[in-house]
Design brief:
Layout (H helix, E strand, L loop, with lengths): L1 H13 L5 H12 L4 H8 L8 H33 L19 H15 L3 E2 L5 E3 H4 L28 E3 L4 H10 L4 E10 L11 E11 L4 H16 L5 E8 L2 E10 L16 E10 L1 H6 L8 E8 H9 L12 H4 L9
Parallel strand pairs: 1-4
Antiparallel strand pairs: 2-3, 4-5, 5-9, 6-7, 7-8, 8-9
Helix pairs in contact: 1-4, 2-4, 5-10
């Protein structure tokens, strides 16, 4: 052991390193878990008791010398590498970061909300996990009503009278607004909704809606038509025309589907509008008196209208996107196309 210690002392005196990597290799060679000095400390256990004091002192001196040598080499090599490295010009401009942009669905949603804000509508929001009452019952969906089958629902809990579910429309926010506010009520309700549907180019199990509600005295269908027409012209251009087709929704009566004149072919017919010159954008109608009464509003004194539209649908028409799945795949090539749609 004495000869080994003397040999290691001699080696340490002559060690030279040129890089920090070599310094680290040296540290591992001598002081690592399987290093030369570490092995000597393991052998120290077998030294005779009367020799332990002498060899213990020499081992500690060897370890301290090795640690000091490593620190000295590390500092020297670091200075040499800094001196050899090319100098940086701190006045040079930095590397440019690529700016992101808002998602096309977020752009259209905000545009829709901004349009209705100009018309005096407030924004109302509510929970995505809702109960059966706010999603169905208060909107004139009795438990056995066939209209419940129109919306395949993701249930969170079942087995009790008011189960929890992922909301299938933002009409639940309208119900909560009517429960907690007195007329006049004028709100739009943007949000994410969920339906158990097969994912395809035209449908998805997750999508976004903006629904609107206006309740006051003497509100008529003519008010509804004018509100939809003003919105369509703000969104698609001043020459946009609308047409309203009779439809059915449990929470409105009468109800209507609304089409706008195709902004691509100007109503002449193309592959986007399938040659009809019209594109469907939303559903609407006068609020059913049962819905008003369920939320504590006197239907003999007040009336109102409601409407709802899919944000992805509006975005598809606005930018001529032919596949709904593009909005959810996070393909940067697709998203970069909208980087100039808004100011970043």
């Amino acid at each position: 052991m004495k000869e080994t210690i003397e040999r290691l002392l001699s080696e340490l005196e002559g060690v030279r390193c040129k890089t920090l990597r070599e310094v680290e290799d040296m540290r591992v060679h001598y002081l690592g878990k399987k290093g030369e000095i570490t092995k000597l400390f393991d052998e120290f256990r077998t030294v005779a008791p009367e020799m332990k004091k002498e060899f213990g002192r020499k081992l500690n001196e060897l370890k301290q010398l090795a640690a000091a040598k490593i620190d000295e080499l590390r500092e020297t090599v670091s200075v040499q590498e800094d001196t050899a490295a090319p100098k940086r010009d701190m006045t040079m401009p930095g590397d440019a970061f690529e700016l992101g942009s808002r998602h096309p669905v977020s752009i259209v949603r905000q545009e829709i909300v901004d349009i209705f804000r100009k018309f005096g509508y407030d924004v109302a929001e509510g929970p995505e996990i809702e109960d059966d009452r706010h999603v169905f019952e208060a909107l004139n969906f009795p438990p056995d009503h066939p209209a419940r089958d129109m919306q395949d629902t993701f249930f969170v809990s079942v087995g009790h009278p008011n189960p929890l579910l992922l909301r299938t429309h933002t009409s639940s926010v309208q119900v909560r607004t009517m429960e907690n506010a007195r007329p006049p009520i004028r709100v739009v309700c943007p949000g994410r909704v969920f339906r158990n549907e097969a994912v395809s180019a035209r449908a998805h199990c997750i999508f976004h809606q903006v629904e609107g509600l206006y309740i006051d005295r003497n509100v008529t269908f003519a008010d509804l038509k004018q509100a939809i027409l003003l919105f369509a012209r703000e969104m698609f251009g001043p020459d946009t025309r609308i047409r309203m087709r009779p439809s059915y929704f449990p929470f409105t009566e009468p109800s209507s589907e609304v089409d706008v004149s195709c902004n691509i072919c100007k109503g002449k017919g193309c592959n986007v509008c399938k040659g009809t010159g019209w594109l469907e954008i939303l559903g609407c109608g006068m609020v059913d008196p049962n819905v008003l009464e369920a939320s504590g509003i006197d239907s003999r004194e007040y009336s109102g209208f409601a409407f709802g539209m899919g944000v992805e649908r509006i975005a598809m028409l606005k930018w001529q996107v032919n596949d709904l799945r593009h909005y959810f795949e996070n393909d940067m090539r697709f998203l970069h196309e909208f980087s100039t749609a808004v100011e970043v």
